[in-house]
C-alpha cells in the first residue's frame, strides 16, 4: 500500500513553497512582469508592492533589495492573480483600485510626494512645482525632485509623468531622459511637441472659447481645436489675459508659480 502511494506522488511545482511563504507574509517575493518599454522586476509583501526595476541583473536586484529592506526577496513564477491584474491595469492606464504599494521605508515627505504622483493621469504630465504645491510644501521643489529620483516603485508610481518647470522632459531614474520619452510616448504623449513648446517658453495653453488655461498635456487642452489655442509663457500672462486655471489639471497660479 505504501509503495502504491509513493508511486502516485509528484514533486511540488517550482516556487510553490516560496509562494506559500509569501502568501502568509514570511518571505518577500519578486517576479518578472511586462512593462511599457520592456520587462520589469517587481517585488511585494502582504503589505503591497515594495520595489520595481527594469529587468536585467536579477542578482543585483536581489542584492539591492536586501540592502534597502533589510531582508531578502525570493523569485516566484508569478504574482497573485488580483495584484497582477491591478498592475497590468495601472500600467495600461485603466481605472483600477490598486495595486497597494508599501512605502514603509520612506519618510513621510517622500511618501506624500509619491502618493500625489500616483494621481497624475495616464498620458499627462505635471511639473515638480505642481507636486510641491499639491502637498502644501511649495518651496520644496528640489526635495520633490530628490524623492522622485529615489522612487522605489517606478512605473507603478509614475514618476515619469513629472517634468521640469520649463516644460522640458528632464531626467529619469529608470533609464534617463530617453527612457522617459519612451514611457511617455507609450502613454500617447507627443514628447517632441512638448519639447517644442518648452523651447518657445510656452508653459500653458488656453482656449479662447472657454478662457481656461491648462498644462499642454491636460486632456481638456488636447481637445481644444488648434484655431482656438492660445499660448502662455506664464500663469501671470494667462491671468492678465482674463483666463482662469483649469479645475482638472490645476495649473500653478501667479501667486504660487515662483515657489
Question: Could you give the topology of this structure?
Answer:
Layout: H1 2-8, H2 16-23, E1 28-33, E2 40-45, E3 48-54, H3 58-69, E4 73-75, H4 81-91, H5 108-117, E5 126-127, H6 128-134, H7 141-149, E6 162-163, H8 176-186, H9 191-199, E7 204-207, E8 212-214, H10 219-222, E9 229-232, H11 235-240, E10 244-245, H12 254-257
CATH architecture of the largest domain: 2-Layer Sandwich
Class computed from helices, strands and strand pairing: alpha/beta
The strand count comes to: 10
What is the C-level CATH assignment of the largest domain?
Alpha Beta
Mean pLDDT, rounded to whole units? 90
**Total domains, how many?**
3
Give the strand content: 15-25%
Q: Please give the largest β-sheet.
A: 4 strands, mixed
**Topology pattern, helix = H, strand = E:** HHEEEHEHHEHHEHHEEHEHEH
Poorly predicted spans: 5-12
Task: Give the strand line-up of the largest sheet.
Answer: 3-2-1-4
Number of helices: 12
Overall 3D shape: elongated
Q: Could you give the distance between the termini?
A: 79 Å
CATH topology heading of the largest domain: Double Stranded RNA Binding Domain
Radius of gyration equals 22 Å
Give helix % range: 25-40%
What would your notes on this structure say?
With 259 residues, the chain is α/β, with parallel strands linked by helices. The protein has three domains: 90 residues, Double Stranded RNA Binding Domain, CATH 3.30.160; 89 residues, Arc Repressor Mutant, subunit A; 56 residues, 3-Layer(aba) Sandwich (DNA Methylphosphotriester Repair Domain), CATH 3.40.10. It is 38% helix and 15% strand. The chain contains twelve helices and ten strands. The strands form three sheets. The protein has a four-stranded mixed β-sheet, with helices on both faces. β7 and β8 form a beta hairpin. α6 crosses α7. The longest helix has 12 residues. The radius of gyration is 22 Å and the shape is elongated. About 3% of the residues have low confidence.
